[in-house]
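hiii, so i know i said id send this last week but things got crazy w the move. better late than never?? heres the sequnce for the chain we talked about at the cafe, plus the structure i predicted for it. fair warning i was half asleep when i ran it
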Amino acid sequence: MKTKVAMLSENAVDKRIINDAALKIRDGGIVAFPTETVYGLGADALNEKAVAKIFEAKGRPQDNPLIIHVADFNIDEYVTEVPDMAKDIMQKFWPGPITIILNKKEIVPSITSAGLDTIGIRMPQNNIARELIKASGVPIAAPSANISGRPSPTDMESCVEDLDGKVDYIIGGENSIVGVESTIVDCTVNPICVLRPGAVTLEMLQTVDSNAYIDPAILSKPKEDFRPKAPGMKYRHYAPKAPVKIVSGEIDKVVAKISEMVLNYNEQDKKVGVIATDETKDLYKNQIVVSLGSRENLNDIGKNLFKVLRSFDSMDVNIILCEAFEEVGVGTAIMNRLKKSAGFDILEV
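okay and structure toks below
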């Protein structure tokens, strides 16, 4: 397959390129495009054959449901009802990095929802994404635009690396400003339940529903027979080529432990990568160190996370050791992605 690649500016969208890509969507093709969270790989959410191409291009498990992306608040065509709590979330956080789970209508194919009676819906903040949805005239089903299991792409170059020759079109734009996938909140239950943490934090959602909580299923390694209700709940995700191990505890003890582990791995002739922060990067010696940013700015940490994880693939490291973060606010989303990338391999010190 020949993949067309085009670069756009979010502030001055070239309608010719948008219309060209939208035609691919309407014809049953698949298109990678930028959003504020990560880049997405989109197809007509109501076209079974088109959605199947997403799973094929990504190598994505069939029981991992997709999210459909819309350009406005008019979602009654796709869901049986929109509860008041869901309306409150939409009014407060749409467009933006949050997906709401609702009971779906039959118009949404089973392949899009992975056989579930529910579907996730979100309205992206990114202008290129919304213009593409509008021009397509259909809701766009879109997981992240990467090979399944790899760190999600936050720039066009990563999309091309993973998907060139596998998709019809790759639209580039600015790098994703959030850097982790959208928060997913189940609005079919009361109180509402977070199925995937993101930039819209639990604390923010509790201003809408004070009883909102995080599903305990995402806090530990899922069992093999677990049936995910939202993307990213079951499978190992966000993983670079080298295995990742997280070290958690007081930061001085974490630095000491990682430094000790580096020496042990070096004695085994293993090349080690360390994911650190601005506050700690100069404390590590004799290994490759990449900083995620300052611990004082978790939004920047989240924005840089996937790019840093991907960067180790070109460094030929044998193992990656990563500092943990406090699971508060955006830190919950950061640790959720790190735990997935590490297959829940965490050392407490």
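btw Residues 251-267 form the longest helix (17 residues). thought thatd interest u
miss u guys!!
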